[in-house]
Amino acid sequence: MTESYTRYERARIIGARALQISMGAPLLIRTAKIDPLEIALEEFAQNVIPITVKRK
């Protein structure tokens, strides 16, 4: 991970991605997991989620 996220940013990114997955978005990794939250956590760990954080 090239950027360090706060726990709030991390929670928002993973939560947003889990919602996308639960609504039918394509997965960005190959996994045997079914739960959208677990899949989002795995995607976050592999740094493949295409969500950025803008800071002032």
Automatic annotation (TrEMBL):
Organism listed in the record: hydrocarbon metagenome
Any one GO molecular-function label of the UniProt entry: DNA-directed RNA polymerase activity
Top-level taxonomy: unclassified sequences, metagenomes, ecological metagenomes
Biological process (GO), any one: transcription by RNA polymerase I
Annotated InterPro entries: DNA-dir_RNA_polK_14-18kDa_CS (IPR020708), Pol_omega/Rpo6/RPB6 (IPR006110), RPB6/omega-like_sf (IPR036161), Rpo6/Rpb6 (IPR006111)
Family annotation (SUPFAM superfamilies): RPB6/omega subunit-like
Assigned keywords, A-Z: DNA-directed RNA polymerase, Nucleotidyltransferase, Transcription, Transferase
Enzyme Commission (EC) number: 2.7.7.6
Any one GO CC term of the record: DNA-directed RNA polymerase complex
Name listed for the protein in its UniProt record: Dna-directed rna polymerase subunit k
